[in-house]
Amino acid sequence: MTTFAAITAIALLNGCAAIERTTQREEARQLAWTGPGVGPCAFGGVTERADEHCMMISWGPEGVLHALNSKVRTGLPATADCADHVERVRTELARHANMKSERIYSCPLQSRARNECHVSVLVTLADGDRWVLDNGTVVSETVGLEGVATFDIFERQVEGAFWVGFPPSANDLAALEAGIKPGAATIAAFSR
Description:
It contains 8 helices and 5 strands. It is of the alpha+beta class and 192 residues long. The radius of gyration is 22 Å and the shape is elongated.
Protein backbone atom coordinates (compact mmCIF):
# COMPACT_ATOMS: atom_id res chain seq x y z
CA MET A 1 0.00 0.00 0.00
CA THR A 2 2.83 2.43 0.80
CA THR A 3 4.48 1.73 -2.56
CA PHE A 4 1.23 2.58 -4.33
CA ALA A 5 0.90 5.81 -2.31
CA ALA A 6 4.50 6.78 -3.12
CA ILE A 7 4.01 6.16 -6.86
CA THR A 8 0.76 8.16 -6.80
CA ALA A 9 2.43 11.06 -4.98
CA ILE A 10 5.32 11.14 -7.47
CA ALA A 11 2.88 11.08 -10.39
CA LEU A 12 0.87 13.93 -8.87
CA LEU A 13 3.99 16.02 -8.23
CA ASN A 14 5.20 15.48 -11.79
CA GLY A 15 1.77 16.45 -13.09
CA CYS A 16 1.70 19.64 -10.98
CA ALA A 17 5.19 20.58 -12.14
CA ALA A 18 4.19 20.07 -15.78
CA ILE A 19 1.12 22.28 -15.32
CA GLU A 20 3.25 24.98 -13.67
CA ARG A 21 5.76 24.92 -16.58
CA THR A 22 2.89 25.15 -19.07
CA THR A 23 1.40 28.12 -17.19
CA GLN A 24 4.79 29.87 -17.12
CA ARG A 25 5.27 29.34 -20.88
CA GLU A 26 1.77 30.61 -21.64
CA GLU A 27 2.24 33.64 -19.35
CA ALA A 28 5.51 34.51 -21.13
CA ARG A 29 3.78 34.13 -24.50
CA GLN A 30 0.92 36.39 -23.42
CA LEU A 31 3.21 39.04 -21.90
CA ALA A 32 5.23 39.14 -25.13
CA TRP A 33 2.14 39.65 -27.31
CA THR A 34 1.60 43.24 -28.47
CA GLY A 35 -0.84 42.64 -31.31
CA PRO A 36 -2.29 43.08 -33.77
CA GLY A 37 -5.46 41.56 -32.45
CA VAL A 38 -5.85 39.67 -29.20
CA GLY A 39 -3.76 36.62 -30.18
CA PRO A 40 -3.01 34.46 -27.13
CA CYS A 41 -5.05 36.86 -24.99
CA ALA A 42 -8.34 35.83 -26.57
CA PHE A 43 -9.51 34.08 -23.39
CA GLY A 44 -7.78 36.29 -20.83
CA GLY A 45 -4.48 35.92 -19.03
CA VAL A 46 -3.39 32.75 -17.28
CA THR A 47 -2.01 34.74 -14.31
CA GLU A 48 -2.99 38.08 -12.74
CA ARG A 49 -0.03 39.80 -14.41
CA ALA A 50 -0.86 38.29 -17.81
CA ASP A 51 -4.56 39.10 -17.37
CA GLU A 52 -3.76 42.78 -16.79
CA HIS A 53 -1.52 42.80 -19.89
CA CYS A 54 -4.21 41.09 -21.95
CA MET A 55 -6.81 43.62 -20.79
CA MET A 56 -4.44 46.41 -21.94
CA ILE A 57 -4.06 44.75 -25.34
CA SER A 58 -7.78 44.10 -25.72
CA TRP A 59 -9.32 47.21 -24.16
CA GLY A 60 -6.53 49.73 -23.56
CA PRO A 61 -6.05 51.54 -20.24
CA GLU A 62 -9.74 51.17 -19.35
CA GLY A 63 -9.29 47.40 -19.49
CA VAL A 64 -6.42 47.67 -17.01
CA LEU A 65 -8.64 49.67 -14.66
CA HIS A 66 -11.39 47.05 -14.87
CA ALA A 67 -8.96 44.17 -14.28
CA LEU A 68 -7.24 45.98 -11.42
CA ASN A 69 -10.44 47.01 -9.65
CA SER A 70 -11.96 43.57 -10.06
CA LYS A 71 -8.83 41.97 -8.56
CA VAL A 72 -8.86 44.39 -5.61
CA ARG A 73 -12.57 43.98 -4.93
CA THR A 74 -12.42 40.19 -4.92
CA GLY A 75 -9.25 40.19 -2.79
CA LEU A 76 -10.62 42.36 0.02
CA PRO A 77 -12.14 40.75 3.10
CA ALA A 78 -15.88 41.16 3.66
CA THR A 79 -15.14 43.55 6.54
CA ALA A 80 -13.22 45.99 4.30
CA ASP A 81 -14.60 49.48 3.87
CA CYS A 82 -14.21 52.09 1.13
CA ALA A 83 -10.93 53.41 2.62
CA ASP A 84 -9.42 49.89 2.50
CA HIS A 85 -10.48 49.61 -1.13
CA VAL A 86 -8.93 52.98 -2.01
CA GLU A 87 -5.59 52.18 -0.38
CA ARG A 88 -5.34 48.82 -2.13
CA VAL A 89 -6.26 50.35 -5.52
CA ARG A 90 -3.75 53.17 -5.11
CA THR A 91 -1.05 50.63 -4.21
CA GLU A 92 -1.83 48.64 -7.37
CA LEU A 93 -1.91 51.81 -9.50
CA ALA A 94 1.49 52.96 -8.22
CA ARG A 95 3.25 50.72 -10.74
CA HIS A 96 1.45 52.42 -13.65
CA ALA A 97 3.40 55.61 -14.29
CA ASN A 98 0.91 56.75 -16.93
CA MET A 99 -2.01 56.72 -14.48
CA LYS A 100 -2.33 59.39 -11.78
CA SER A 101 -4.59 58.57 -8.84
CA GLU A 102 -6.24 60.79 -6.23
CA ARG A 103 -8.85 60.24 -3.58
CA ILE A 104 -12.28 61.57 -4.49
CA TYR A 105 -14.86 62.00 -1.73
CA SER A 106 -18.60 62.09 -2.14
CA CYS A 107 -21.54 62.22 0.20
CA PRO A 108 -24.54 60.67 -1.52
CA LEU A 109 -27.89 61.67 -0.09
CA GLN A 110 -28.50 58.29 1.57
CA SER A 111 -25.12 58.42 3.36
CA ARG A 112 -25.45 62.09 4.37
CA ALA A 113 -28.54 61.14 6.36
CA ARG A 114 -26.20 58.97 8.48
CA ASN A 115 -23.48 61.69 8.61
CA GLU A 116 -21.22 59.53 6.46
CA CYS A 117 -19.28 60.18 3.29
CA HIS A 118 -17.59 57.87 0.83
CA VAL A 119 -14.15 57.76 -0.81
CA SER A 120 -13.28 56.41 -4.25
CA VAL A 121 -10.24 56.69 -6.53
CA LEU A 122 -10.07 59.24 -9.35
CA VAL A 123 -7.67 58.05 -12.07
CA THR A 124 -6.37 60.38 -14.74
CA LEU A 125 -4.85 58.64 -17.76
CA ALA A 126 -1.97 60.00 -19.84
CA ASP A 127 -4.43 61.28 -22.48
CA GLY A 128 -6.41 63.21 -19.82
CA ASP A 129 -9.36 60.81 -19.64
CA ARG A 130 -10.66 60.47 -16.07
CA TRP A 131 -12.15 57.37 -14.49
CA VAL A 132 -13.43 56.54 -11.01
CA LEU A 133 -12.74 53.21 -9.32
CA ASP A 134 -15.11 52.36 -6.50
CA ASN A 135 -15.92 49.45 -4.20
CA GLY A 136 -19.46 49.34 -5.60
CA THR A 137 -21.13 51.70 -3.15
CA VAL A 138 -21.42 54.72 -5.47
CA VAL A 139 -20.43 53.11 -8.78
CA SER A 140 -22.84 50.20 -8.61
CA GLU A 141 -23.31 47.62 -11.37
CA THR A 142 -26.17 49.73 -12.78
CA VAL A 143 -23.76 52.65 -13.23
CA GLY A 144 -20.44 51.01 -14.10
CA LEU A 145 -18.95 47.58 -14.67
CA GLU A 146 -16.82 46.16 -11.80
CA GLY A 147 -17.07 49.46 -9.90
CA VAL A 148 -15.41 51.43 -12.73
CA ALA A 149 -17.06 54.40 -14.43
CA THR A 150 -16.07 57.45 -16.41
CA PHE A 151 -15.75 60.61 -14.36
CA ASP A 152 -18.81 62.09 -16.09
CA ILE A 153 -20.98 59.14 -15.03
CA PHE A 154 -19.62 59.34 -11.47
CA GLU A 155 -20.29 63.10 -11.35
CA ARG A 156 -23.90 62.57 -12.41
CA GLN A 157 -24.29 59.74 -9.89
CA VAL A 158 -23.20 61.99 -6.99
CA GLU A 159 -25.12 64.97 -8.41
CA GLY A 160 -21.96 67.10 -8.68
CA ALA A 161 -21.17 66.86 -4.97
CA PHE A 162 -17.57 65.65 -4.63
CA TRP A 163 -14.21 66.74 -3.26
CA VAL A 164 -10.88 65.80 -4.88
CA GLY A 165 -7.94 65.08 -2.59
CA PHE A 166 -9.53 65.94 0.75
CA PRO A 167 -12.64 64.90 2.68
CA PRO A 168 -15.43 67.43 3.12
CA SER A 169 -15.40 69.58 6.23
CA ALA A 170 -18.45 70.42 8.31
CA ASN A 171 -18.64 73.74 6.42
CA ASP A 172 -18.51 71.87 3.08
CA LEU A 173 -21.40 69.66 4.16
CA ALA A 174 -23.37 72.65 5.39
CA ALA A 175 -22.81 74.37 2.03
CA LEU A 176 -23.93 71.20 0.29
CA GLU A 177 -27.14 71.17 2.33
CA ALA A 178 -27.62 74.82 1.31
CA GLY A 179 -27.45 73.77 -2.35
CA ILE A 180 -23.84 74.70 -3.21
CA LYS A 181 -22.24 71.89 -5.21
CA PRO A 182 -18.47 71.68 -4.59
CA GLY A 183 -17.75 69.59 -7.69
CA ALA A 184 -18.86 72.30 -10.07
CA ALA A 185 -16.47 74.80 -8.46
CA THR A 186 -13.63 72.24 -8.60
CA ILE A 187 -14.22 71.52 -12.29
CA ALA A 188 -14.39 75.22 -13.11
CA ALA A 189 -11.04 75.76 -11.34
CA PHE A 190 -9.43 72.88 -13.31
CA SER A 191 -10.67 74.16 -16.67
CA ARG A 192 -9.07 77.63 -16.31
